[in-house]
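One such shown below:

_____
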Amino acid sequence: MTDFAQTEIERRLTLYQVFLKLYEHHSGLLDEILQLENLSQPSLTGVKACYVHGVVDTGAVYLMTNLCDNQTQSLRQPQRIWTIGRNHNSGICIADSHLSRRHAAIQHIDEQGFYLIDFNSTNGSFVNGDRAVEPIKLKDGDRIRLGNMTFDFFVNYTCRVLPTVAMDLLMQFMHRKGHHPVEILTCSQNRQKPLTEKPDSNLEAFRNFGLVEKLENRYENFSSEQKSEILDRFFTRQIPSNPR
């Protein structure tokens, strides 16, 4: 019995040393394993994933994140430097005892990208498990750990414009209960005259032109060309400001 106990102690000690060595060289991997284990627990299934999203849109550069006040915010900074720490003056203020008052910052440099900079913090800053001894350039999907807090970093430099919605689908929206057709169809590129601001007034204008009744009674018999012609006629008309 004594030999068994001694063997078990030695086994656990060896296992501890293996994990200690693994953590020294691959701390990010163990952090990922522990986080997945925590999220699998029923009491923690409601935990939100934390993130920082760097956006470069033409001349505008800003961050989107849910680290501030536990809600998503867009953060613009004239110098394009977003400081992170426990200090209330930090651009991203986080009440975490493992963070330094001035812990780190994310900086954007033109024609280079976003960088993570550590301010010689006590518990350090890590990108994919590598400590940020010097500024580290951030890539889309990087995993960042500041003190005891971990979040994902995303970045995009492009914006894709989607095609317009097909006419048949727009007509289906008009027949959904509880939706004002004007709120959807006013986005058409064929519109030349502005509609009134109030939804009720817009809907009344639709009825004055007889468009709603026509579509409701003869929708199944309309071809795509006829539907398009009706909408074109509607949007090229000028709605009187004071209808009688």
Summary: The first strand starts at residue 51 and ends at 57.
